[in-house]
Design a protein that fits this description.
The protein starts with a helix and ends with a strand. It has helices spanning 2-19, 23-31, 34-45, 63-72, 85-99, 137-147, 171-192, 195-207, 211-221, and strands spanning 52-57, 76-82, 106-109, 122-128, 148-159, 225-232, 237-243. It is an alpha/beta fold. S-adenosylmethionine binds at residues 12-13, 16, 58-60, 63-64, 82-84, 87, 111-112, 128-130, 133-134.
C-alpha cells in the first residue's frame, strides 16, 4: 500500500513538472481568468491583522503566494512550498519579475507530509487546488496541524463534484456544470498537449469529498473550528476557512 502511494505521488509530481511551462496559460484560458477571482476571494478572507509566517502549500507557480505577499507586505513572511521543482522554478521567475532579486517570498521544495517548519510556528496555511492531489491527505492534515499556532487560519480552495446531490441546483445548472467539466478535459488536453492530466483533473475532482466529507476529515485529523464554507461561481469550486 505504501509503495503504491509513493509511486502515485511520484507520478503526480512528474505530471506537474511536465505541465509547468504552460500551466499558467492553460489555467487562465480554461477558467477564463476566474481562478484569479477565486484566489483573490481567499486572500481577502485572511484577517487584516495577520502577522507572522504564512505557508502557501502546493504553491505551484506561486500566484496565491504572490497575492498574499502583495496584500500584507512585510507584516507577513510568505513561504511557498511545492514538491515539483519545475513548478517552483516558474514561481521563482514570477517572483523575480515582480520583486527583483530581493524577493521577500521564500520558495521551498518539500512534500506536504513532511514540512520543514518547527511545531506551532505558522500563523496560517493556504492551499489552492492542491489538496485533491495529496496522495496521503490524512498525513498532510496532521502535518498542517503540527506546524500551526493556536488561532491560526487555514484557507483551502478546491474543486468539488458539481453535481453533488447535496446541492439543490436546477437541472439546467447541473447540465451546464457537466458540460463545463466535459469541455475542460477536452480543451485542457488540446491546449496543454497533456491529455492524461486533464482526465486526472476530472477524476480527482469527482473523487474529492464535498464539504460534508471534508468537514469529517478535518474534525477527525485536526479538530479545527469551521469559520466559513463558500461555494463559488459557477458552482464547482469551494472555499473553506477554518480556525485552529
Ligand atoms: C493544480 S496545482 C495548483 C497550484 C497552485 N496552488 C494554483 O492554485 O495554481 C497542484 C500543485 O500541488 C503540488 N502538489 C501535489 N502534491 C503535493 C505534495 N504532496 N506536496 C507538495 N506539493 C504537492 C503539485 O506539484 C502542483 O504544483
Amino acid at each position: 500500500m505504501r509503495e503504491i502511494r509513493k509511486r502515485n505521488s511520484k507520478s503526480i509530481r512528474r505530471m506537474f513538472d511536465s505541465l509547468s511551462e504552460r500551466y499558467d496559460l492553460v489555467n487562465d484560458l480554461l477558467s477564463l481568468g476566474m481562478h484569479r477571482l477565486w484566489k483573490r476571494k481567499l486572500v481577502h478572507c485572511i484577517p487584516a491583522d495577520t502577522k507572522g509566517r504564512w505557508l502557501d502549500l502546493a504553491t505551484g507557480t506561486g500566484d496565491l503566494a504572490l497575492m498574499i505577499q502583495r496584500r500584507f507586505g512585510v507584516k507577513v513572511e510568505v513561504v511557498g512550498v511545492d514538491y515539483a521543482p519545475r513548478m517552483l522554478d516558474r514561481a521563482k521567475e514570477k517572483s523575480r519579475a515582480h520583486f527583483g532579486d530581493s524577493s521577500p517570498i521564500r520558495w521551498i521544495l518539500a512534500d506536504s507530509i513532511n514540512l520543514p517548519f518547527p511545531d506551532q510556528s505558522l500563523v496560517g496555511i493556504s492551499v489552492s487546488f492542491g489538496l485533491r492531489n495529496f496522495s496521503d491527505r490524512a498525513k498532510a492534515f496532521q502535518e498542517m496541524k503540527r506546524v500551526l499556532k493556536k488561532g491560526a487560519h487555514v484557507l483551502i480552495l478546491e474543486f468539488g463534484n458539481p453535481i453533488d446531490p447535496n446541492h439543490s441546483d436546477s437541472w439546467i445548472k447541473r447540465a451546464i456544470l457537466t458540460a463545463v467539466a466535459w469541455w475542460t478535459v477536452r480543451l485542457g488536453a488540446v491546449l496543454s498537449g497533456r491529455k492524461k492530466y486533464y482526465q486526472y483533473l476530472q477524476l480527482s475532482s469527482d473523487a474529492f469529498p464535498g464539504p460534508d466529507g471534508l468537514r469529517l476529515e478535518v474534525t477527525k485529523y485536526c479538530g479545527w473550528r469551521e469559520r466559513e464554507c463558500l461555494r463559488l461561481w459557477p458552482g464547482n469550486v469551494f472555499l473553506y476557512h477554518w480556525e485552529v
